[in-house]
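quick one
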Amino acid sequence: MPISPIGREKSPNITIDKAALKERLTPIEYQVTQEKMTERPYTNKFYKHREKGTYVCKVCSEGLFLSGTKYDSGSGWPSFFDIIDKSKVIFRADASGIGGNLLLIVKRPELIRTEVSCKNCGSHLGHIFNDGPKPTGQRYCINSCSLEFIAEVDEIDGSVKTEESEEIHHPATLGGCGPDGICRLPPKNNVRDRIEVRAAMIETSTNTLR
Ligand SMILES: [Zn+2]
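structure w/ zinc ion:
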């Protein structure tokens, strides 16, 4: 999985008319897909969604995830253990959750998340973590706001099918994004780690104020 370094973005395939997009999307959908915000956990559209079908990019309709790879991570956001085609997305190192704090990046490289965005249109989708279930061990933590759902419909009665594979419950352990878009530390971190991280953050904000 090639990950682009921080600050070096690959260009998307298509250019989006931002004004038209603002008309089409809700404010939060626009903020999440275009400004890399994070929607609120638990109350978003697809967190508990169990219909059978395909999740596509909200902006350009590129097919991204199948309902059979969706699972319950307990994180509050739709989680998938695999993607239809890795070449449809861009992986990029993202230090925004720790404010680009250089000291922390050096000391705690595991705090750098990997952002996932749509390769076709450049929209922000979410992040990927290595705490997913088998067989991939990965968790695509994706904003509902970045997705649209295309249901698989029964040919005879036109009803929407429910995903028949049994739902996997595999709790996330590597944290995620808070409703304010800030990456929280995993709750199991020991106290010394927390103090160290907090101290480094205070040091950075003090330096910025000078
Ligand atoms: Zn897209």
